[in-house]
Predict the 3D structure of the following.
Amino acid sequence: MALFLRELSRNFKSFIIWTLILIISNIGLMMMYPMIAEQAGEYNELMKKLPKEMLKGLSMDKLNFAQILDFFAYVFLYIILFGCVYAILLATSIISKEESEKTVEFLMAKPVTRNTIVTAKTLCVFFYITVFNVVFTVADYLAFEALKKSGYDINIFLLMHLGFFLIMITFAAIGLLVSVFIVKAKSIYPVAFGIVLGAFFINITAAISDKLENLKYLTPFKYINPSDIVSSGRIEGVYIIIMAAVTLVSVALTYVFYNRKDICV
């Protein structure tokens, strides 16, 4: 418990900063909705003139900007992108920073096992991601209620936010595994950004090219695409299974490799 509380304290500042930035950014973008809704006909006509491949790649081919959920789905995709960056940065740094900051010797001198260390850090990551999503969902709901021009499906609204939570957990689990192999702090950012942006562009590529459509299984961004959720009203069961499997395997391998690792002190 003491180690878990230590990790909460060490990561509290970054949690507050990321949460405030993403909530403020999202609300700022959502405040454009009333103006967009008034000119929705013009925007929808403009969308028809753009290349279909471009619209599919940006997940705009199924959206009607007169509806608040459709507008939110477009905005939300980019909020999800940066939310995943936060999740993987948090997870990637939480184990590796012990070596980069030369605090691992102090940690190893305590009467704790390596499994205890990994457990405390994993719980910290999942705790902050859970709290982030609860706060973010409440803030979004208040924004929707303030800006809506008509009713909307609250179940789809909640489903999109559930998807956000699931993809953040997935990237966080991958980040935990990666953190076992990172020693230098300066390596964290290129690796974390590379994983998230790589997955994001694979999603775009799979959407644009029919020949590369199967690449969608390699990117969680396809699994919880907001425009797909709005149009279908669900998250495909196979995608949930894949995310759960990736999360469980990544966390399990984190324990395995951290116990086998030669730690530099």
